[in-house]
Design brief:
It is a single chain. This protein is of the alpha/beta class. The protein folds into 2 domains: 215 residues, Rossmann fold, CATH 3.40.50; 79 residues, Rossmann fold. The chain is 45% helix and 15% strand. The protein is built from 15 helices and 10 strands. The longest helix has 15 residues. The protein is globular, with a radius of gyration of 18 Å. The model has no long low-confidence stretch (mean pLDDT 93).
Amino acid sequence: MTPLPVQLSDVHAARERLDGVAVRTPVVRPERDALVADADLCCKCENLQRTGSFKLRGLFNRVATLAPDDRAAGVVTLSAGNAGAAAALAARLHGVPCAVVVPADGVPRKLRAIEALGAEVVRVEQRSELEAAVERLQRERGLAFVHSYDEPEIVAGQGTVALELLEQVGELDALVVPTGGGGLLAGCAVVLQALSPQTRLFAAEAEGAATLAPSLAAGRVVRRSQVATIADGLATSTYGRHTFALAAPAVERSVTVGEQEILDAIALVWERLRLAIEPASAVAVAALRRLQPALAGQRVAVVLTGGNVEPRLLGEALRGSGWA
């Protein structure tokens, strides 16, 4: 059997590299029935991580494991959001240049955040030309390409979320994780299979960007022809090759949720926990609520992956819930 590209030892090594860099984010325990009926719920608050999302864990680990000469030349990644900000901070902490290729129609606030962390934002008008722009920067400047999710070092870094969670809460019956390209879900799968194989692992996806559910049905990675969702942190047209190989055997089910469910979940978490979460995090909360009958009486955790929500969108969610 071919060894899987990420082992538990890789996750432990990533945690050592992240010591003093990534925040050991808190676990919030809502009042019973606050977010989901009849379950003992734990929320892993990666929305309180540096840069506002879990992405720093994987991107820092990847930059740290580059060959010294490659790292010194600088890095380039492709992301209009959380991965771009994480790459920018990882590069700054290593004292190397960083370029982030983004679509010109990316969320302005997130692009400003990337620039504020010292990275160069390279805007591309046509999304079909993004990869070509990355290749040009690699060729012209000698930058090392850092994928936002589908590299073993990224997966190992993201797996530290589950490693911390198990240390903080002990045994779990189920874990619900939002997924787009699969770095976090795959990392959690590695940790659970090694340390808590009895824990049921559920994926959560936005209906307009679901790539894992159809890939599981087909038994291989499939590509979407169109992506449309407010959950921009999950908006990718394909699952990763490495991440699918790691996650597919471990995931019990991928739950897809609609746009209104995402907005409702943003409002619910604000109302009950006073936490601002972005749509990608809300996808997991919405999926959790769909899974309520299957999780009754169990100890369940959900990863709140990020807090970088647009104020306009947060306001829309709150007004729709009758809050404001």
